[in-house]
């Protein structure tokens, strides 16, 4: 009954605009377990990864995987006690299984759909893997810190196949004596964006860094951001080719940690920064894109409570809410947009009570929430469908820089057209269509966008 008491304490406080409804909350009754990442499965349920340990000593700590139904009910859990440390990232593979990024031990776990162990891959040099992300060509990227020498770490990027075989590895050194403490990666136009935090050997030499690479991981430019004590935790590309980054900052003007948002141009120049100096939001931990061109972020308050916010396409807050009474571990939060356009978030109690999962419904419509500010895309772009892999239905978004005729079609692996989703004249800006594969067999399909003499293609996986 203890989890019921915990759920009854999940009271939410409104900070600004109308908010989506809470559909359910669940607390997993495991005092020695933490969950760090959440992924929605093709059947509408959820799979989460983190760490736990069966008892003392804590050296027995291992990876922990939890499977929930679409209503948040626990279906099963798995623990791998010999991995040493816990999971920080997860991606679903083409065969319906998963790749799990294991923090601090330079390993990736390969499991089937039931999280049953298949393979463990170790990568020499990596000492902390913080993120794992799919690429457009069907492979995967690992981002983290990499050992360059004694007490010297740089940022690292590793590209692997679905089987975990290494394709290439890149090291990124800093010109001064600072070392990388964390790193995450997001796909950007024709390349990647590595976001993280680095520190020196004095108490005030912590700053955020960004490294922009091409598709082969070669550095195009790198920048340092922030003054004083600064951390960059997350970020996403924007429709105009720029970037939105988030983390926390403390400086002489505001002598306490507070949430921090940075808007960049495509070349890394700062457009604006926003600091939550007049509120209790202490840090933004995770940012995910939403299908309307905006973003959903998860963070923490100075009172150790989970904070969720929806941002529009320009980074302005549409709605936000604080969950009172959770006493969260501030480094433990993740949030995703779900297939029904709602949201699912996970956080962890700092008081040894177990993780909490919250499901929110879609944004209120039509007038309760401000419409995102329209941004004209700088180039033709076909975004990855969501969800992917998918079971029958998926959503596809594309951007047109100018008005004109556009064709969006789906092909099987033989090149046969199995459906035309769009064929007409469209205004400039983002557009969203749905694809129904009910009549098609499971397998790999390609979606191709053609407009104004250019084309884009993505790979989609139908799993039934």
Strand line-up across the major sheet: 1-26-25-24-23
Number of strands: 36
- Overall geometry comes to globular
Share of helix, binned: under 10%
Biggest sheet architecture: 5 strands, antiparallel
Mean pLDDT across the residues is: 80
* Residue runs with pLDDT of under 50 for 5 or more positions: 1-16, 366-374
Name of the top-level CATH class of the largest domain: Mainly Beta
Instruction: Could you tell me the CATH topology label of the largest domain.
Output: Methylamine Dehydrogenase, Chain H
Measured by DSSP, the beta-strand proportion falls in over 45%
Number of helices: 1
CATH architecture of the largest domain: 7 Propeller
Would you write up a description of this structure?
By secondary structure, the protein is mostly beta strands. The protein has two domains: 2-360, YVTN repeat-like/Quinoprotein amine dehydrogenase (Methylamine Dehydrogenase, Chain H, 7 Propeller), CATH 2.130.10; 381-462, Immunoglobulin-like. The protein is 2% helix and 58% strand. It has one helix and 36 strands. It has one helix at residues 2-8, and strands at residues 11-14, 22-27, 33-40, 46-52, 62-68, 74-80, 87-92, 98-102, 107-111, 117-122, 126-134, 140-149, 152-160, 166-172, 179-188, 191-199, 206-214, 219-225, 229-237, 243-250, 258-264, 270-275, 281-289, 295-301, 306-311, 317-324, 328-337, 343-349, 355-360, 381-382, 393-400, 404-412, 417-426, 429-436, 443-451, 454-462. The strands form nine sheets. Strands 1-26-25-24-23 form a five-stranded antiparallel beta sheet, with no helix packed on it. The chain has a four-stranded antiparallel beta sheet with strand order 2-29-28-27. Strands 3-4-5-6 form a four-stranded antiparallel beta sheet, with no helix packed on it. The relative contact order is 0.12.
């Amino acid at each position: 009954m203890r989890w019921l008491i915990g759920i009854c304490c999940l009271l939410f406080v409104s900070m600004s605009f109308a908010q989506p409804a809470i559909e359910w909350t669940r607390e997993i009754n495991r005092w020695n377990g933490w969950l760090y990442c959440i992924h929605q499965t093709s059947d509408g349920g959820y799979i989460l990864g983190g760490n736990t340990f069966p008892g003392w000593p804590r050296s027995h700590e291992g990876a922990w995987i939890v499977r929930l139904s679409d209503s948040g009910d626990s279906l099963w859990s798995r623990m791998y006690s010999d991995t040493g440390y816990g999971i920080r990232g997860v991606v679903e593979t083409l065969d319906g299984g998963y790749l799990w990024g294991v923090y601090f031990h330079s390993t990736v776990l390969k499991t089937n759909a039931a999280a049953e162990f298949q393979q463990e891959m170790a990568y020499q040099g990596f000492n902390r893997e913080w993120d794992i992300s799919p690429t457009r060509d069907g492979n995967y990227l690992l981002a983290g810190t990499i050992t360059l020498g004694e007490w010297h770490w740089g940022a690292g990027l590793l590209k692997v196949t679905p089987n975990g075989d290494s394709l290439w590895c890149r090291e990124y050194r800093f010109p001064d004596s600072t070392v990388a403490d964390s790193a995450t990666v997001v796909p950007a136009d024709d390349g990647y964006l590595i976001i993280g935090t680095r520190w020196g050997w004095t108490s005030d030499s912590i700053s955020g860094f960004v490294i922009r690479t091409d598709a082969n991981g070669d550095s195009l430019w790198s920048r340092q951001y922030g003054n004083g004590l600064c951390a960059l935790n997350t970020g996403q590309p924007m429709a105009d080719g720029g970037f939105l980054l988030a983390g926390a900052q403390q400086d002489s003007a505001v002598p306490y940690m507070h949430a921090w948002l940075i808007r960049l141009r495509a070349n890394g120049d700062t457009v604006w920064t926003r600091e939550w100096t007049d509120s209790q939001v202490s840090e933004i931990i995770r940012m995910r894109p939403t299908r309307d061109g905006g973003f959903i972020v998860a963070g923490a308050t100075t009172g150790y409570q989970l904070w969720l916010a929806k941002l529009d396409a320009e980074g302005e807050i549409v709605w936000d809410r604080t969950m009172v009474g959770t006493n969260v571990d501030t480094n433990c939060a993740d949030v995703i947009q779900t297939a029904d356009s709602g949201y699912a978030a996970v956080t962890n109690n700092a008081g040894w009570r177990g993780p909490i999962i919250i499901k929110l419904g879609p944004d209120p419509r039509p007038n309760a929430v401000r419409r995102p500010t329209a941004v004209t895309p700088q180039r033709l772009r076909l975004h990855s469908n969501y969800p992917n892999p998918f079971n029958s239905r998926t959503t596809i978004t594309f951007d047109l820089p100018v008005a004109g005729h556009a064709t969006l079609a789906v092909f099987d692996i033989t090149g046969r057209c199995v459906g035309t989703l769009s064929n007409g004249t469209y205004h400039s800006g983002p557009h969203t269509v749905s694809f129904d594969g009910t009549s098609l067999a499971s397998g790999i399909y390609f979606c191709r966008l053609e407009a104004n003499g250019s084309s884009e293609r993505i790979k989609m996986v139908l799993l039934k």
